[in-house]
Amino acid sequence: MQFRITRMPSLAVVGLGVALLSAACGGQAAPDAVPATATASAVSSTTTAAGSAAAATTSSPISIKGAWARSTPGNPGENSAGYAQLTNNATQMDRLVAASVPESFAKAVELHRTVRAGDVMRMEPVQSFEIAPGATLTLEPGGNHIMLLNLPTALKPGTRVPVTLRFERAAPMTVEFEVREATGASMSGTSMPGMAPATGTAGAMTPGGMR
Amino acid sequence: MRSKTNALGAMLLAAAVLLTACGTFGPQQSFHAHESDPPTPVPDFVLVAPDGARTALSDFRGRFVVVYFGYTHCPDVCPTTVGTFAAAFDQLPAQVRDRYRFVMVTVDPARDTPEIMGRYVAHFDPEFIGLSGSPAEIDQLISAWNLPVECGEVQADGSYSVGHPASAWVLDTQGRERLHVSFTATPEEVAADLQLLARKG
Known about the structure:
The complex is a heterodimer. In chain A, a hairpin with a 2-residue loop joins strand 5 and strand 6. In chain A, strands 2, 3, 4, 5, 6, 7, 8, 9, 10 and 11 form a ten-stranded mixed beta sheet that branches. Chain A is globular, with a radius of gyration of 17 Å. Chain A is mainly β. Chain A has two helices and eleven strands. Chain A has helices at 35-41, 52-59, and strands at residues 18-19, 62-70, 80-88, 94-100, 108-117, 120-125, 129-131, 136-139, 144-149, 160-167, 173-180. Chain B is an alpha+beta fold. In chain B, 38% of the residues lie in helices and 25% in strands. Chain B has helices spanning 2-25, 77-91, 94-97, 114-122, 135-145, 187-200, and strands at 34-41, 46-48, 54-56, 64-70, 100-106, 129-131, 150-152, 162-165, 167-171, 176-182. In chain B, strand 5 (100-106), helix 4 (114-122) and strand 6 form a beta-alpha-beta unit. In chain B, helix 2 packs across helix 6 (187-200). The chains are: A mainly beta, B alpha+beta. The interface between A and B is large, with 58 and 54 residues. Strand 6 of chain A pairs antiparallel with strand 8 of chain B.
């Protein structure tokens, strides 16, 4: 299955794994597991925060900007999300196929998209995000995102999460996602849907520098 | 004939300029958000606050109330929405802000206890209110409000997602539904709408 790189794959109603049950959730066990979980979380502990980000950019055809993750309140088993803009500078199609973080940050990582179906918002796991040659995949609030599941400790603003991104063609790269305040106040203009500029101004990962 | 046409054209142009000027520089007259017309009373509910107190929606009568239905394991849309309202509240003049309350109600009572709801909303704004209840109480609320809520499949690790409403409700001081604010709204748009509603009453 392929996914477009638009801001919101708005009306793609692909009822993936969503059961319409009456009201309050969580009572039923379901037999199926999503294979993407295993793929995405398999590499976790091999990553180290230091040094790998800078090394990865020098040769990769994928360039990444505006990488950030949401701060969290510290509730048990809570989740977060990571966002960034990924540009494919190669002449061939590539795909983001998995993401992972050290287990000290999250127990599992999945690629997700948020879908609006009429009045309801839901999330769907996806196998991969396509990035055409010269195109930019935008992961942003209300759209495609990297979901961080079951965090052992809260993500505090100002800290960083090393996220290893795996591609179909390009070599894996580890990018530090800057943890930002939840209010939106500190990210004014860079990430709200509908007013996000094409390239973020903060958390940029370019050769030689991240904030 | 020609001069008449020109005169008419000039008048139309002047009128258009005037209208544009009013639209651009005058006080905001219409809402960015979807307006409920006519204002409709919403069903009351009684749930549990983080300190254990039974709290009714009607307890807030006399204030404007933003009611948002979401869940704390929601990584994307819920924090975006609550964060947008927190930023919007920060932009309100103190006397307007005092007239508003923000209430988040969980649609996932199996995981979201009142304590967890309290910690969650306080992460965005210490004055925001988080409410939960028993699954039966939340079920009853979902049905009374006719909320679009969908349960995702439970994964091997026990996690699941919940489909939830795309908008937040804004109620007036008489507990009537006035605005539906989409999660795509900016803090600036929300702040402008909340001020306009406070002016209109």
